[in-house]
Hints:
The chain is of the alpha/beta class. It has helices spanning 4-25, 54-57, 59-62, 66-75, 101-114, 144-162, 178-196, 211-224, 233-258, 269-274, 277-287, 302-312, 317-321, 339-353, 368-380, 385-388, 418-424, 427-434, 446-450, 457-477, 496-506, 508-518, 522-541, 551-572; strands at 39-40, 50-52, 84-90, 94-99, 128-132, 166-173, 265-268, 291-294, 297-300, 328-331, 358-364, 389-394, 397-401, 404-406, 442-445. Helix 11 (277-287) crosses helix 14, helix 12 packs across helix 15 (368-380) and helix 21 runs antiparallel to helix 23 (522-541). It is flat.
Amino acid sequence: xxxxxxxxxxxxxxxxxxxxxxxxxxxxxxxxxxxxxxxxxxxxxxxxxxxxxxxxxxxxxxxxxxxxxxxxxxxxxxxxxxxxxxxxxxxxxxxxxxxxxxxxxxxxxxxxxxxxxxxxxxxxxxxxxxxxxxxxxxxxxxxxxxxxxxxxxxxxxxxxxxxxxxxxxxxxxxxxxxxxxxxxxxxxxxxxxxxxxxxxxxxxxxxxxxxxxxxxxxxxxxxxxxxxxxxxxxxxxxxxxxxxxxxxxxxxxxxxxxxxxxxxxxxxxxxxxxxxxxxxxxxxxxxxxxxxxxxxxxxxxxxxxxxxxxxxxxxxxxxxxxxxxxxxxxxxxxxxxxxxxxxxxxxxxxxxxxxxxxxxxxxxxxxxxxxxxxxxxxxxxxxxxxxxxxxxxxxxxxxxxxxxxxxxxxxxxxxxxxxxxxxxxxxxxxxxxxxxxxxxxxxxxxxxxxxxxxxxxxxxxxxxxxxxxxxxxxxxxxxxxxxxxxxxxxxxxxxxxxxxxxxxxxxxxxxxxxxxxxxxxxxxxxxxxxxxxxxxxxxxxxxxxxxxxxxxxxxxxxxxxxxxxxxxxxxxxxxxxxxxx
Length: 581
């Protein structure tokens, strides 16, 4: 699992360390001099392929002018056998390195050798990770927000897997609590209206008004008949809730499967209550002195827990007071546990009972106030929620059609469902568009997502892959098969577009590392879009078919390496790489 960008940076630092030791032996630098610094990729390639600031970073300690240090280092650099062809001092003391053909050839070898595993890094070191995402209430069809959460969570899980984590995907089914009672009462009201007339039965003001509720009520009546008005309300609601969940959850699973999302587990909130984990978790908080009773309810000392954390982090009491922190109810006066209590128990289950090293939740931005409270509760349980729980907050989706925003509301039934979306938009387009920066709103243009041209970014990338497949097949028909990397001389690849393309190939492992570090799978979108753009520029500038011997083989290998890496990158975000378009 090679990261050729990082390997080149490490090589620069190692070469400079050797040069520093030689310069010190000669008296050109102070005895025992040791230099450290950073190695970066300049924005302008006129400044080399890599630039080191070691001379400037060490100027104060060595009490020498940075440029004089840099000149001493360059004089003692031994580039023979390295990945660099030349080095020069620039400006106040930057040391600029230029890559040799051997590095470009080694990148192509690495892509060929690692195949479908290219781009993997070992940041996770085999630690266990759960990514929980979507977790929509099973009270109706999934909507556009769930569509975004689905691809962000799934792509993030893939990124973390590529970064060396053992990943578990989970959907948390909220099949208990107030929203389920609201769901049941909505079905009940529609059921009674079917029997007594709509004017005879008032629909709950906060009920779910979608057409799906009417369909569930009609299906319940068809299966169980008209005699349920005589049943006790609690019995009727329990039966209707179960009836609705047994139909909605399989639909959710089917929609997500169609969307390319598969889970390792669908975890039911009700199981936490049935197993006693909610009660046990709250008892642990109580034994730790983190709860109190007031007005018949049991409260968590959330404000105190968060205050202690903030004081320890250096915040002043005045700053904390401005936050107006509040305590949370864990168990209501009627004896029922709150959703927050269940959520604490669920995350304790993740981190303690199942022992995941890290849990990541993909949540809507409207949950931002919940983050610190939940982490604080886990800290109170001794589970280090501050570090072992990470929350990715995603902004809302704005759906555009004919240049106008389409308003959406799940409760009123005016939301565009995931099913409807995928009837109109190819899955690849939906996944590509929704895998954008979590902290930025998505402006989803229906017409653009449907276009089959280069204005649609996923089409642009897929077309590059298909174009290479066609090229490889055409050249194979003429007797030019893709050569082994060892059989190609990369020094034949002298055009700037060729070298920039290889640099982009080399960047995938680093992009995976950064995407995992930042919990931002959209970096893969940007990466593969740029890879496609560089390929198209290369293909326009550099003739492959009919090129002179040696050059043709090198360019054909380069093109095939691009094909491989496009396919790998698209697979990470769950998008197909077609061979024909």
